[in-house]
């Protein structure tokens, strides 16, 4: 903690950049609510891409354990490529969720501050209720997204381990050792896909509510 003050300028710079970005966008008619919708939709696309990458990695794993002769070096290269693609897709999902959090926090802070500007009590009450409802929906969505994000970690760990093991043991015995891992990886990927589908469905509902 004694070195935390060294990070303060950087944090202020990042916060300042975000504030400047939101201000610039508002000047051209794009508000935080619009940015939040765009980022949620981008996260949907990112999750859909991640699903494809993990499914592809599972298919490659299935082909790997059925190995019956051939170029093991090429098989390793393909296996590692699938892992790298999954890792990149997972990183993109995390980045998208972080960007959603950033603009949502800014939006809700602004909304809360602007409640003080109302002179009409009925309109203020209605806006306060809408803010509470939106924050509740958002909180549920964020939890679902983070759950799906966490579901990727055990799969990535397994894919990385399999790739490393194959790299250092390019022989048929290594393939046999990996066969026992397939069912676990398959189960984890199926759970991951279910979690992401839930997040995508909630995202669609959240966007629809914001656009009302």
Automatic annotation (TrEMBL):
Q: Name one Pfam family in it.
A: DUF2959
**Which intervals of the chain form a coiled coil?**
33-60
Tell me which positions the record assigns to the signal sequence: 1-19
Keyword Signal assigned? yes
Entry keyword annotation includes Chloroplast: no
Keywords (alphabetical) are: Coiled coil, Signal
Name recorded for this polypeptide: DUF2959 domain-containing protein
Annotated organism of origin:
Rheinheimera pacifica
